[in-house]
Write a structure and sequence with these properties.
Helix content is about 25%, strand content about 20%. It is built from ten helices and 18 strands. It folds into two domains: about 300 residues, Aldolase class I (TIM Barrel), CATH 3.20.20; about 80 residues, Elongation Factor Tu (Ef-tu), domain 3. It has an eight-stranded parallel barrel, surrounded by five helices. It is an alpha/beta fold. The structure holds iron/sulfur cluster (SF4). The site of iron/sulfur cluster has 12 residues, from helix 7.
């Protein structure tokens, strides 16, 4: 079966990703993993993450995918030696210098070529294969036709592709906008996402090429890519010979990680159960609309995206649902929730868990604080108790539709 690979920005998110159906997770250490603003994992936490993941017979890959400068190399060498000692399942690397270090000091750990290395053709795949890479995470900028051709021309290497998540206006993060504008380096994992900022921009050097620019009182957003979503292409992707499908988003909430993972999990399982008669379910897109996202599109899947690939009107996220909290235990007949946002008596809240068919709604009749006193509403960063006359699965999440009046 194809591998479903989910992001994990910290240990809690990792547990949710695995519990909601990921076959493997990818994480970053405190340095070198291209997401400086995610919580990330200390060396000790990486060890715990490896043990937890292996206990479930799943896999864990560590991103070491910065474009390193000389001063990083010694520390990277020590980090890679540590990753070898704790037996991670693969290293995700972009920089040929880091590949050289990994081959020298951790030969037995498989190396996956990061999408950051922008591998876009079969000769490039062969090149990296000759240099010891076991898996290629293909550039997001490939169509499915190109991917199929690569598969056909290089049958004996693992191929991974992104199916969901944020896109860059540049080639997968190899971009100097953030460096240039505020001295924060995207290639060292510190991008400030200036492509999402509101610009007033005039491009005068391309006569005959008219970029649509819609403006509101704040400016325009011509660099602002929509989010990738290939849920409606699952059967073709699974038939293309791809080995792993990847969800982007180490900085997203545990609710996002869990819900997006379970949707792709359901779609993949659904495909394998009904291979000759696969039908995507409406609930997939409905649920993907319930996580915080930008407008969806299908990226480069069908070839070069047209002008609809950007959202020219807003760089904001679409948020239809609020993540309220997660189940952390049961005591004296009460379910204990870690509360992330306010809800009140009388609200209708939804409980989601690993399987879509187990979701249900409930109108809140009573809420209790940690000492079992009745309260009218919850407060973020507290524990609240709920009494329900049905059994909740571990890792249950609660959410609420946002009232847009
Ligand atoms: S500025 Fe935007 S396009 Fe450039 S690396 Fe950051 S997120 Fe990607």
């Amino acid at each position: 079966m194809i591998e479903l690979l989910s992001p994990a920005g910290n240990l809690t998110k990792l547990k949710y990703a695995l519990h909601y159906g990921a076959d493997a997770v990818y994480i970053g250490g405190k340095k070198f993993g291209l997401r400086q603003k995610a919580d990330n994992f200390s060396p000790e936490q990486i060890k715990q993450a490896v043990e937890y993941t292996h206990h479930l017979n799943k896999k864990i890959y560590i991103a070491v995918n910065i474009y390193a400068h000389n001063q990083h190399l010694d520390e990277i060498k020590n980090f890679i030696k540590y990753l070898k000692m704790i037996k991670v399942d693969a290293l995700i690397i972009s920089d040929p210098g880091v590949v050289t270090i990994a081959r020298k000091y951790a030969e037995e750990i498989p190396m996956h070529l990061s999408t950051q290395a922008n591998c876009t053709n079969y000769e490039s795949v062969k090149f990296w294969q000759k240099n010891g890479l076991q898996r290629i995470i293909l550039a997001r900028e490939l169509s499915i036709a190109e991917i199929k051709e690569i598969r056909q021309k290089v049958p004996n290497i693992e191929l991974e592709m992104f199916v969901h998540g944020a896109m860059c206006i540049s080639y997968s993060g190899r971009c100097l906008l953030s460096n240039f504008l505020i001295q924060r380096n995207a290639n060292l994992g510190d991008c400030a996402q200036p492509c999402r900022w509101k610009y007033s921009l005039v491009e005068e050097t391309r006569p005959g090429q008219f970029f649509p620019i819609l403006e509101d009182e704040y400016g325009t957003y011509i660099l602002n890519s929509k989010d990738l979503c290939l849920i409606n292409k699952i059967s073709e992707i699974l038939e293309s010979g791809i080995d792993s499908i990847k969800i982007e988003g180490r900085m997203k909430s545990l609710y996002y990680t869990a819900n997006v993972t379970r949707i792709y999990r359901d779609a993949v399982n659904n495909y394998y159960k009904n291979q000759h008669n696969y039908q995507s379910k409406n609930i997939y897109l409905d649920e993907l609309e319930k996580v915080s996202h930008r407008q969806y599109y299908e990226g480069f899947y069908n070839g070069r995206p047209d002008k609809n690939a950007q959202n020219y009107e807003s760089s904001g996220y679409i948020r239809n649902y609020q993540f309220l909290g997660e189940l952390i235990g049961k005591k004296h007949g009460f379910y204990q929730f870690n509360i992330r946002a306010k809800f009140s008596i009388g609200d209708t809240i939804e409980f989601i868990s690993q399987y879509l068919e187990d979701d249900f709604s409930w109108t809140v009749d009573k809420i209790y604080d940690e000492e079992q006193n009745e309260i009218e509403f919850t407060k973020p960063n507290t524990i609240a108790l709920l009494k329900l006359n049905r059994k909740l699965s571990p890792f249950t999440i609660i959410r609420k539709k946002i009232d847009k009046c």
